[in-house]
Amino acid sequence: CGVFGIFGHPEASNLGYLGLYALQHRGQEGCGIVSSDGSRLHAHRGMGLVADVFRDEEIFNRLPGRSAIGHVRYSTAGGKDFKNVQPIMVDYLRGSIAVAHNGNLVNAQEIRNELELAGSIFSTTSDTEVIVHLLARAQSDSLPDRVSEVLQMVRGAYSLVFLTETRLVAVRDPNGFRPLVLGRLDGAYVVASESCAFDLIEAEFIREIEPGEMIVVDKDGMKSYHVFGKVNPTPCIFEHIYFARPDSIVFGRQVYGVRKEFGRMLAREYAVDADVVIPIPDSGVPAAIGYAEESGLPFQLGLIRNHYVGRTFIEPQQSIRHFGVKIKLNPVREVIEGKRVVVIDDSIVRGTTARKIIKMIRAAGAREIHMRISSPPTSFPCYYGIDTPTRKELISSSHTVEEINRYITSDTLGYLSREGMRNAVGEPGGTKGGHFCDACFSGFYPVKFPRLKADSQLG
Ligand code: 5GP
Ligand code: SF4
Ligand code: MG
User: Fold this and answer.
1) Mind listing the pLDDT tens digit for each residue in 172-193?
2) Quick one: 81 and 204 in the same domain?
3) What residues flank ion ligand 3 with Cβ within 5 A?
4) Could you tell me the residue range of the domain that residue 8 belongs to?
5) Is 440 a residue of the active site?
């Protein structure tokens, strides 16, 4: 998912719309904006893309005020359903509050069970709703204290943005799994999942919000709090591999350069005699450029993407996915025919995409196909906000590289090593003292979770 927030700007909801537009790659199922006019919150939410949900200009008249938060959703927990579209907005004893969440709480089900036993009624199936229930029950007087009280109870991955009538709160979990950045625009404060949202609205990038940091903005300005004693950041390496936009600065580094470095490292680890390097667009492009530069082979666009089709992975139905590859990509015969082709992609999840694309490239006349993946085999599910499927659907959790090579029908297959990946990305510069999470490759999970419950939440 992607989150956005702005406080103290006359065009808050319009800028929120633009911010979400730039964050669209982080989720396409649904989106929404909640604004505050200083005494009341106003919401507009819907299923689908930002441009479709905010189709009519008139909608912005119904989102008045100088502050707003927004969300683009793709489901990791809770399912594809209108009722789960965020921001979640509720009224309670102390007023109204809205929340937008990127991440996944690993103990949401436990908390929810307890709350339901105590009589709470939930209106969504999303993990995020437990946060508003806990907030409504929190005993502290001030909002920052109440939020911090809640954060001591939830575990997992969260970059959260809250809006009340008079305040904006932005907070990142102590592991800092998901990105969240702070900026300024015409005296207003802005926060967003990725800096590419700031570029579009011409906001100035100030800094990353730190793991475990909570920022509170109101009419008196901004305050920063550190609400966790010991902070041990483990930001998500997969943001650099696939999820974030290449023009964004994530965990202190521009994603584009990191992806190229993955490609360079891959060329060193898995060199091959070949004629041309082609990416699977869009996600394989920067790594393919790096691979080509390092190997001295020419980079060509051997596959053309139809940009009017959404990211296939985000559509969870198997039938749509299969159709997706063909509808999305078409080979350029001139680039491929009679050639020994190196094909670069960022990851293999189920293996269905790679298998179909390789058949396509073979049919376009390739003499040899050498598949190169700019990350290690994805063998473990993510419990921290990326929608990887269950273990049994992950092809590399039960198959060797050679078996996968045979299945996808490439001549050779090479994955970037875990060491190569970690060396290419270095340690996260912006995220102080952190070591990346790479649990989906290594199985080493930095935050424990109740395994059975977590498994049933996924897929
Ligand atoms: P597969 O067919 O192997 O399941 O899909 C692999 C493709 O899905 C890759 O091209 C990758 O870029 C894309 N992809 C889209 N979303 C995700 C995601 O959340 N995780 C992973 N690992 N790959 C994704
Ligand atoms: Fe990111 Fe993988 Fe860790 Fe999930 S398990 S947070 S996708 S590195
Ligand atoms: Mg891809």
Assistant:
1) 999 999 999 999 999 999 999 9
2) yes
3) 283
4) 2-232
5) no
